Amino acid sequence: MERDLKREDWLRQARRALLGGGVEAVRVEKLARSLSVTKGSFYWHFKGRKELLELLLHEWENEVPEILEQLGPGSAEGKFQALVRLLERRARLSEEGKVPSDAAIFAWASVDPAVARRVNRAEEGRLRLLKRILGRGGRIELFYLVWLGFVARGQRVPATRRRFPEIARMMRRLLSTSGRGSTDL
Fold first, then answer.
1. Is 150 contained in some domain?
2. Which secondary-structure segment (H or E) carries 110?
3. Is position 45 within any domain?
4. Which structural domain range is residue 123 located in?
5. What is the DSSP letter of 70?
6. By the 8 A CB rule, do 14 and 26 touch?
7. b/e map 20-50, b = 16+ CB within 10 Å
8. 156 & 88 share domain
9. Can you give the CATH number for the domain in which 40 is found?
10. Same domain, 144 and 83
11. Which among 17, 52, 60, 158 is placed 20 to 30 Å from 112, CA to CA?
């Protein structure tokens, strides 16, 4: 008897496949096998692989408003601290396929010029929005570059992704306006 899968089950598995094996791992047959179902279940929810891939990219492109909404009211410093804690939690959730993974999307962008253009556009928008909401643009850019370094290393050496809570604590301390190492970048 085949399990009754929902669209989100397929998306979660596709996110995990994208993170673990890149865009080539997001294949209907592979996903069905990993979910222990037939391919027919997939086509109940999606027109095809192309639609699934588009959805994976689209959800990543549009996740920033949801993330910023979770920061809540408060000072720019409070929002910055909340952002780092939120990214720490989202890094864990992306490993489980529950939210889009920056690492997976950036790896995909490195092999697909069309995806790279969309990712670059989305990143520009993310940085503009972060600067507007959190202020102090230099600090945000430094934070973003550290985040990208963490993401890139985590793709090459997956075991390092477990260190993100420790790295997040260091980032909060180093980039805090009240921290000893703080400078107005």
1. yes
2. none
3. yes
4. 62-175
5. T
6. yes
7. eeebebbbbeebbeebebeeebbeeebeebe
8. yes
9. 1.10.10.60
10. yes
11. 158
- Phi-psi region at 72: left, alpha or beta (left = phi > 0; alpha = psi -120 to 50): left
CB hemisphere CA count around 136 (13 angstroms):
18
- Structural tokens at position 105: 């999307």
Tens-digit pLDDT profile for residues 115-143: 999 999 999 888 887 787 777 667 777 87
- How many residues in total does the chain contain? 185
Give the pLDDT score at 64. Answer: 84
Q: First-to-last CA distance in the chain?
A: 60
Low-confidence ranges of the chain (pLDDT < 70): 1-3, 136-137, 176-185
Do residues 79 and 87 make contact, with C-beta atoms less than 8 angstroms apart? no
Predicted local distance difference test score (pLDDT) of residue 3: 64
Pick left, alpha or beta for residue 37 (phi over 0 → left; psi -120 to 50 → alpha; otherwise beta). beta
24 and 113, same domain (yes or no): no
Token representation of residue 77? 């410093």
Return the C-alpha torsion angle 102, 107, 111, 114, nearest 10.
0
pLDDT at 137 (0 to 100): 63
Question: How many angstroms separate the CA atoms of 151 and 117, rounded?
Answer: 19
Are residues 85 and 113 located together in one domain of the fold?
yes
